[in-house]
Write a structure and sequence with these properties.
Layout: H1 2-87, H2 91-100, E1 112-114, E2 117-120, E3 127-130, E4 133-136, E5 142-144, E6 149-157, E7 161-167, E8 172-179, E9 190-191, E10 196-199, E11 210-217, E12 220-222, H3 225-228, H4 237-241, H5 247-260, H6 263-266
Antiparallel strand pairs: 1-4, 2-3, 4-11, 5-10, 6-7, 6-9, 7-8, 8-11, 11-12
Helix pairs in contact: 1-5
This protein binds zinc ion.
Length: 267
């Protein structure tokens, strides 16, 4: 009886043990399956994130290129517009523009001792923006207005020394600094291009006799160098090198305004 009972008990153990083993095996298989599935999914997720990032980068690059393209198209469009407007100008209109916009040299000197832009200041010994150009020369050399205009300031300033500022047509201004005390014009005077306004000196913050010359458009300083060679013969260069002025609108205004009153025909 006991033997039979023992045999039955043995069988029961075998069944329990094999069931437990089977459960372990199943759990192991299932967990291996899920672990591999999870790592697969993780890999896919990483791939997806990477490709999304790449797509975003490509999108950004595309937008940048598109913007560049738009800018270039706009510039070409503007240049074409300006070229068309310029080709329609009469000789008299050109002469009027040259006399109204700062052009040519303010002094009969070609020695530029300091250019427009950042430089180490000779007195303050600091990197400072130089808003004009300097012409070195002999004290007493006559200085002339570079366009028709009205004298907005004539007097002394601690930095500029004896200096003159002239307001011109269409939003341009010029300034002439470090001159001798005997200034030839006073505030409110209407002057013509080429009129003598004063003489080269060494007044204000200056390390030697020189003229400091500025050209402004709507209170922004422009590089005067671009305006020095502007004349009726070399007429078109300025409009393509100086990008800070809305030339198309300005030339259109000059031609339409002056043709309306018939002024252009007088020149
Ligand atoms: Zn200067």
């Amino acid at each position: 009886m006991w033997r039979v009972k023992g045999k039955k008990l043995n069988n029961l153990y075998v069944i329990i043990l094999s069931t437990i083993a089977a459960v372990f095996v199943i759990v192991a298989i299932v967990s291996i399956f899920f672990t591999s599935k999870i790592s697969e999914l993780k890999k896919e997720q990483l791939n997806f994130t990477q490709s999304t990032a790449y797509m975003e980068e490509t999108d950004f690059e595309y937008l940048r290129k598109e913007n560049q393209f738009d800018e270039i198209t706009e510039l070409i469009g503007q240049n074409v517009k300006i070229k068309n407007l310029l080709s329609g100008l009469s000789r008299s209109s050109k002469a009027l523009i040259v006399s109204s916009i700062p052009s040519g040299y303010p002094v009969n000197l070609n020695r530029v001792t300091s250019s427009f832009g950042y430089r180490m200041h000779p007195i303050y010994k600091k990197r400072k923006f130089h808003h004009g150009i300097d012409f070195g020369g002999k004290s007493g050399t006559p200085i002339v207005a570079t366009a028709d205009g009205i004298v907005a300031f004539s007097g002394y300033d601690s930095g500029y020394g004896n200096f003159v500022r002239i307001s011109h047509n269409f939003g341009f201004k010029t300034a002439y600094g470090h001159m001798l005390k005997k200034l030839k014009v006073k505030k409110g005077d209407f002057i013509k291009k080429g009129d003598v306004i004063g003489y080269l000196g060494n007044s204000g913050v200056s390390t030697g006799p020189h003229l400091h010359y500025e050209v402004k458009y709507l209170n922004s300083s422009l590089d005067p160098k671009n305006f020095l060679t502007f004349n009726e013969k070399n007429f078109e260069t300025l409009f393509s090198i100086e990008k800070h002025v809305a030339w198309d609108s300005l030339i259109w205004a000059i031609t339409s305004q002056y043709s309306k009153v018939g002024l252009a025909r007088l020149y």
